[in-house]
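Hi L.,

As promised, NADPH-dependent 7-cyano-7-deazaguanine reductase:
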Amino acid sequence: MSQDRPGTLVDAPLGRESAYPERYDAALLFPIERAANRVPLGIEASSLPFVGGDEWWAFELSWLDPRGKPVVAVARFRLPADSPCLIESKSWKLYLNGFNQTTFAGRDAVIELLQRDLSVAAGAPVTVELFGVDDAALAPAPLPGECIDDLDVAIDRYTPAPGLLACDESDIVEETLHSHLLKSNCPVTGQPDWGSVLIAYRGPRLDRAALLRYIVSYRQHQDFHEHCVEHIFVDLMARCRPQKLLVMARYVRRGGLDINPWRATPGWTPELPARLLRQ
């Protein structure tokens, strides 16, 4: 699949047996248009109701220096939410694996190539940072705000149910809540995607028990990480109409990659939390 021609999941390497390459090949990247999953949510590309991005971390990145010695690094990639395409995760893993036996003059050459290829695939500029495996930037920290996971609630809905959400319009607050009970499933393989979700907002006070039931309702839902976050954002805006909203998920690593999408109301550039210990 050409990088400038987005495909569909029917053509994606996800869920298929794949030979892992040992040489660099940009053609392995498989872009998928975001629009197909946004249309059912009423999201139009020309007027996105949010700003945001997708932060990817890669923990299985290695290449050879000019003398044949392996170099290892951890990479952080940032894709803008308004890019026309996301990049299918297995194709990304295959692409990165192709660096293993490829020689580079240095880290700058690796960053330059990654930024070029990923930007072409996403259809928008992608930023790349490389870290040493002991870099302080990798240190974990807890999510800010209050955890709602210990609420004593009965739950019987395991597919997205926005009708569960409730708020008190007479009580305007600004607070940050989070839960570690987010789980969705790969839209192709059905494999579980475990994550934590942070919701920061200013507006009518959210009913916390209702919010927890709603978060858990994604437990049997099959979708990409990015679209789950957008679904949550759209539902909260529609049901509770906050003046300011941030939804961020930190998903657990699978195959050496973890994905951390965030969406916020336009005009707000939130300070994003650090990595979690479970990641």
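The mean pLDDT is 93.

Thanks again for sending the construct details.

K.
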